[in-house]
């Protein structure tokens, strides 16, 4: 017994193959995780002028924030001698929001992060702080081994 491959059978097979392909794509797309950069992005957008002012103030210092690997983790040195009030160091992981964390910045501007807090991959390190009454903002990329 042989199967007749007339034009109706071929159209049915092409249509069935397309439906199976589309159902597979729908399944794969629903399994994908989409993290927002920030959950309060609208409020941050309204305050973005402060980030621009902080970047301009940081550029006027002439020094950059340095990030160096140490035996115990990572050392971040801000370009100012002393931080006034409270600042914040935000380790932002673009591919997985659960790896993001924030560290308060106080004192001499040297922050040590233990290696147990970092997962392997790329981080964007964002520093916000005050110095001599002016806001400052630095940003750098760090690759955790």
UniProtKB/TrEMBL annotation:
UniProt key word Transmembrane: yes
Pfam assignment, any one: FixH
Keyword vocabulary terms for this entry: Membrane, Transmembrane, Transmembrane helix
Transmembrane annotation, as ranges: 12-28
InterPro entries: FixH (IPR008620)
Keyword Membrane appears in the UniProt entry: yes
Protein origin, superkingdom: Bacteria
Protein name per Swiss-Prot or TrEMBL: Nitrogen fixation protein FixH
Organism annotation: Phnomibacter ginsenosidimutans
